[in-house]
Amino acid sequence: MMKPVNNMNPADGTAHETLEAVVEAFENAWNGPSIPDVERYLPALDHPDYDSIVCELVCVDFEHHWRSGESLSVEQYRLKHPSLVARQPVFEQLVFEDYRRRIQRGETIILADYAKAYGVSTDGWPRPPATEAETDAVVGKVSTVDGCDTDGLTKAVQMS
Predict the structure, then answer these.
(1) Across-strand partners of 144?
(2) What is the DSSP letter of 119?
(3) Are the C-beta atoms of 119 and 83 separated by less than 8 Å?
(4) Closest CA to 51 of 94, 1, 102
(5) How many CA atoms lie within 13 A of 5 on its CB side?
(6) What angle do CA 2, 84, 87 make, to 5 degrees?
């Protein structure tokens, strides 16, 4: 069983110090027999990439919940992990991920409703498609959300 990231000792070489390593460990845990607790994979609060790592972990967690059939809403996720989404960049990334997933599922989305309901800027987000062909084009693009940049990994969220 993988040890939580924040309990690992960097001196013995078992710590996951990079975003990629933390996300990979968390993704691998999702392939296990039970749903992993995202909070067990967080780095120490004073980690220089704390916000970036949290942003990416929250997006991965949210996506895996959706894939497993648990269509968490932004509000449900906020209630489940209040300390994580209290940070504005993380919350904005979560809202964007919810928006992107709903477009993928073919739901009718009004972009202004997201901005109003969640108090986030939707500038630069892809506009909801009007047709199925437009849905395929929007879902296949890369979009950005400010505040979650880790050498472009989090800022460029692959829309898949």
Answers:
(1) 156
(2) T
(3) no
(4) 94
(5) 27
(6) 140
What tens-digit pLDDT sequence spans the chain (160 residues)? 233 344 343 333 444 468 899 999 999 999 999 999 998 998 888 888 888 898 899 889 988 988 888 878 888 888 888 888 888 888 998 899 889 888 888 888 888 998 999 999 999 998 887 755 554 555 555 444 444 543 333 333 333 3
Contacts 24+ apart (CB under 8 A), 153-157: 153/19, 153/20, 153/52, 153/56, 154/19, 154/52, 154/55, 154/56, 154/59, 154/93, 157/59, 157/93, 157/96, 157/97, 157/100
Helical spans, DSSP H, in 46-144: 50-67, 74-80, 82-85, 88-104, 111-118, 132-139
Contact 56, 145 (CB under 8 A): no
What is the C-alpha separation between 25 and 56, in angstroms, rounded?
12
Task: With CA atoms as reference, report the closest residue to 144 among 55, 19, 67, 61.
Answer: 55
| φ, ψ at 38 (rounded to 5°) | -55, -35
**What type of residue is 131?**
T
